[in-house]
């Protein structure tokens, strides 16, 4: 009986993970996740939330078997699951495995905890505010990353930096925050109950940032997902990055578009070219809007030049449904899965509603 159980459940098999392209091997204790074991053995394994929601610890299982503590499918797309991607923070190792992690191509600053205060909120649309915080000292981050904000009596919530980083760090930081009906943090924020509030800020977190190289880029933003992409584009322009760029921005109506002038200004200076494409899903037919209508993901194919789609890198932020649809469309068009980078703006209700 004992040997049958051992055979079935693999008890006693050495749990060893080979991590490529580092070419290192680690042992994984039965009570640990793959991420916990890697960090305990000194591997700089990309990670952030550790609870299966951010996707930073995504890696590709090339040999062996793991089991998922929480379903990888809440965070990873169908295409990623089919290609063998797993979340190391949610993976328990069965026997010997081999995984591949991405070389992030940038030195990401180590997260720290800061004392902060909400010093200003400005309406961008009827349900998105620019929220500015003052910190006790400058924070160093890479364009595209996010911070976790904890207000008194509330759970921590993640928000992406909306401005480009500065040499020496930024002591005043901004975020674009969308009101989520029934949401603990955003309902209070929009009711004005957090004006001047002392908050704790932990960051920077996440691995979403512009990868090096000369590949053309396609950016896709939905709602407040514009924040990290604006940070990324501002930073790239400041650093004279010269890559062809297409920027799609999905919103419901003209009233939900914001920062358009700023994007158009970036587009004017951008070399060799930045094409900005706003797409409205619920704009009244009689409004006179001459731009594109429908879901932003329905317009990717017509916007990406045929012939060199496989050369593109994809950068996307926004609601989980938009990200999943965009990954499906980009991969259908031939953009390689490892060249697609995103932050899904998941919330406490994601996967439960
Ligand atoms: C990496 C990352 C970056 C992000 N960046 C941004 C950003 O830049 N801007 C931005 O606006 N947002 C961003 N988000 C989302 C943000 O972190 C919050 O999730 C969002 O603001 C909602 O927070 P909340 O406390 O108001 O709502 P929550 O309290 O999280 O509730 C959200 C919704 O879920 C419902 N809900 C809660 N629990 C359950 C349950 N058990 N079952 C069913 N429904 C439930 C609530 O009623 C509500 O409708 C980001 C998220 C991630 C992961
Ligand atoms: S660290 Fe694993 S999903 Fe966030």
UniProtKB/TrEMBL annotation:
Names of required cofactors: [2Fe-2S] cluster
This protein's UniProt keywords: Monooxygenase, Oxidoreductase
UniProt domain 2Fe-2S ferredoxin-type: residue ranges: 14-105
Residues in FAD-binding FR-type domain copies: 111-211
Pfam families, sorted: FAD_binding_6, Fer2, NAD_binding_1
Origin: domain of life: Bacteria
UniProt protein name: Monooxygenase
GO MF term (any one): monooxygenase activity
PANTHER family xrefs: NADH OXIDOREDUCTASE HCR, PROTEIN RFBI
Regions annotated as coiled coil: none
